[in-house]
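Chapter summary example: a protein plus iron/sulfur cluster.
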Amino acid sequence: MPNPPEKFVVTPFEVRGTIDYDRLRTLFGTQELTSELLDRLRRISGAPLPPTLERGVYYSHRDLAELLTGYEQGRRFFLYSGRGPSGPMHLAHLIPFELCQWFQEKLHVPMYVQVTDDEKFWLRPALDRATTYQWGMENLLDILAVGFDPKRTRVFFDTRSVGTMYSLAVDVAKKIPYSTVKAVFGFPPSTNIGLVFYTAMQTVPCFYPSWRTGTQVPCLIPCGIDQDPHFRITRDLAEALGYPKPALLHSQIIPGLSGGKMSSGSGEKDNAVFLNDPPEQVERKLKRAFTGGRASIEEQRRLGATPEICSVWALWRSKFAKDEPEFQQITNDCRSGALLCGDCKSNLIARVNPFLEEHQKRREIVRPIAESLILEPAPGSTGPHGGPPLPSP
Ligand code: SF4
């Protein structure tokens, strides 16, 4: 008898239904992020884990144990994460970058950011080049405001860095059959050929340090589990090109304020708190947010609420609860009915607005250095490895 259909859909382009995360891990063939691995990370870093690791937002991985073993033996890795610039960034967009910043600070490893303004231009018919470029520069400030060390951070801004990336992209593109991208991304015949080539551009950062240095430099990519299919292609290519397979750390999907995935592509601006939302907008959005609460105060006091389905709880969990005791208290009080949704939302608004205010100040601090981190071919550089120096190890 065939297996019954899954009750959820998770792809790089669509997230739908109530996700059974253990089942999803089995379907994708990824590994569980066990408490033993987390203990190892605590020991290696010599520091408490960040909230997203401590509270189970990151729950799955590929080859993290091997990466850490290599690190303990003196084999440095680097971090890679990216952003497709089509508009302002929201709170959930920061999650992989915040984890990268933690790794960089604790393990002193380089970070590569990719701004894929080419992909967004190819993907969204309504966007012109100037718009994706401008959002790329704006988003880059949001990313750097997370606190990366400029000495250990470099940026691939695709339309500007292509001279640095192209030789490797050519090698990569030769190893990707059209049938692979068609099968993974479901491209219809009308797809423009830019999107077909883009898989090569997205793969370049994963191998770039190995290619530039002629050594095997492992890569770690924190990302949402919905993005795993992208990197399955990259991991298969790694073997074909003789580079280390990138390791992955997968987060659960951060729910949007009106349910579904927190997304700026849904066209629903109230589904997310954007980093440039003014305080009154944040208040309005969070007050209307989807919760796991009951129909009446009386019922909630009596039966308690369900934090796991609540978009407000997801934000407490991602970073706004200041420590583990506070997070446990919010969760327990929600479940018992001691905490009501209105109060819980007001408390969260009082945390989110100061965070955004501080974030805007940090954006201005990094503004003067952002340009200097973009990888572009040095004037007069020649040969396939021409380009600016790599970040300090
Ligand atoms: Fe969500 Fe808070 Fe209501 Fe619990 S009390 S369901 S965490 S809003």
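Key point: The mean pLDDT is 92.
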